[in-house]
Amino acid sequence: MKKLITLLLMLTITGSLRAQSDILSSRLSLEVNQQSLEQVLKSIEQKTGAQFSFNAAEIETNRKISYSCDDNTLDKVLQDLFGLETAFKVRGKYIILQKRKIPKKKDFFVLGYVLDSETGERIENVSIYEPITLASALTNMHGYYKIKLPKSQKDIDLRFSKETYEQHIETIYNRIDFKKDINLNQIQKSLDVAVEPIKSQAIKTDTTIDAVSEKINTKISEVPVPETVEVSKEKITLPKIDLQDELAFLDSSIKNGKENFMNWLMTTKQKKHFENIRDSLYRPFQVSFLPFIGTNQRLSPITTNDISFNIIAGYTGNVNKLEIGTVANIIRNQMNGVQVSGSVNLVGRKMTGIQIAGASNFNLGNSEGVAIAGASNMTLKNSSGVQIAGAFNATLGEHEGLQIAPVNYAKVFTGTQIGVFNFAQEAHGVPIGFFSFVKKNGYRRLEIAASELNATELSFKTGTSAFYNIFEATYNYNRINKTLFGFGYGLGTSWKYTKWLSSNLDVVSTTYLPESFNADQIDTWSQQWQLNLGIEAKIGSRFAVFAAPTLNLFATQNQSLDFSKYKLLVAERQVNWFGNSANLYSWFGYKLGIRFTNKVS
């Protein structure tokens, strides 16, 4: 029974499809001239037996038609009459006509050629852009352009820009595809050059026979040979190098290198737009996947955003409030606000606000605010505020504020540097670290001295007068009851009273080695802590003498060293020195010697 019902259904469906196919495949000839669509449909019904059904509000039955065909199928005739705008369904002999729903286009195209208004030549690489949606295009080598624009936008001012040409703005009223050729005028450059008449020199001529014969018969007089004169040997002096010119050249080279680097980060089309467009474009928000793929499209290097989000990396013209990127944030001009990157932040001209990067912050211009990086902060010009980095901070201009990193550098700094190594060309603050060096107005002393303990003490002091580092070495030439040699490190500060008189307060820790040092005698090392307050008197610009009373603490396990008979001994006692018994001496002593100084201090 089930099989019978299934078979009947199949036969019914097959019959229905065949009926539909039969009605559409029926053939007819038709000849109409300026008849209404309604009359044409009635003629078709008479010739084929088909019955048409439709909504009069959707089908324009009064439309006049002229049509001719000879032995065509009904299917072909209906396609010719209605085209793609009307769909038809078949139910037996009934044909249902319905208006086809064609999706409306959201965009339209403007295309054409850009020409030089004076020469008529077609112009290559002209920027065509719409400043609100940031839609853009470039003309090809034949001056042809095609740009897609949204139909929904209310006002469209299409702009045409090219280097050395005046900008042209074309207001678009239609929202359909159309062709528009544009003529651009070249920018007229005025020549501010003073034009002076050319002065011709008078030519003196004498063509008389007497004058010619006189010149021919003139005797050539002998040329007198000058007497040889001994030239005295003079000292050859090399030309002086103008340091200002060298620095200006260096600054120009850095500036050109910065521009070339920022241009290198752009695509070829972005470079062309950047060269052509003189407008400042703005969008409140942008999202980029890569510097070439984002909502700013190809105009990103000349667009300002309030908020910028880069999924991997992004390149924008300016950011006013916030930028976040997982790998890299690149801003051609200015960053104002907060910039956070998982790896690198790069700003071309000026950063004002807070920068946080997993690896490095690079500011190719000035920076103001707080910069925190896992590896480095680099500023090519001036900076102010706080720089904190895991490896180094470097400002090639002036830095005002605080730098904290293992290595800190500023050409000129005002404030504080805290690190293992600190460097500056000029300082108006305090560098605090293991080693600090300031070239121009720093504090440097190479000191040769003697004390009640050591025959020779050689010290180098470097930093600033407010805070400097001391590196020391001592030697005793095998004297009895003396250490052989030692090395030490300390810190100090200096006060200047007059041009020639100053004082120092130094704290130095010195480790002394035994006379026959080897690894087995490590327990016999000795340690001294010394506090001294000295007076320095300069003799000339680079030479000084000094003397200082000292307070000393000396711990030793070396039983051959005995300082109990020192006249100014304060105390002597037994102490525990790294788990072993040791002698601890304290006494007042002296230190005096000479110093070689840097000129400015």
Model description:
The protein is mainly beta and 601 residues long. Helices cover 14% and strands 49% of the residues. It contains six helices and 40 strands. The strands form six sheets. It has an 18-stranded mixed sheet that branches. Strands 32-33-34-35-36-37-38-40 form an eight-stranded antiparallel beta barrel. A hairpin with a 4-residue loop joins β32 and β33 (456-463). The longest helix has 24 residues, at 2-25. It is elongated and about 145 Å long.
List keywords for this structure.
single chain, 601 residues, mainly beta, 18-stranded mixed β-sheet, eight-stranded antiparallel barrel, 40 strands, elongated, disordered N terminus
List the helices and strands and how they pair.
Layout: H1 2-25, E1 27-36, H2 37-48, E2 51-54, E3 64-73, H3 74-82, E4 86-91, E5 94-99, E6 107-116, E7 127-129, E8 136-138, E9 144-150, E10 156-161, E11 168-172, E12 178-179, E13 182-184, H4 209-216, H5 243-264, H6 268-276, E14 281-290, E15 293-294, E16 303-310, E17 313-316, E18 318-325, E19 328-331, E20 334-341, E21 344-347, E22 350-357, E23 360-363, E24 366-373, E25 376-379, E26 383-389, E27 392-404, E28 407-418, E29 421-427, E30 430-432, E31 435-438, E32 443-451, E33 456-463, E34 468-475, E35 485-496, E36 501-513, E37 526-538, E38 543-556, E39 569-577, E40 580-597
Parallel strand pairs: 2-5, 6-12, 6-13, 14-16, 16-18, 17-19, 18-20, 19-21, 20-22, 21-23, 22-24, 23-25, 24-26, 25-27, 26-27, 27-28, 28-29, 28-30, 29-31
Antiparallel strand pairs: 1-3, 4-5, 6-9, 7-8, 7-10, 10-11, 14-15, 32-33, 32-40, 33-34, 34-35, 35-36, 36-37, 37-38, 38-40, 39-40
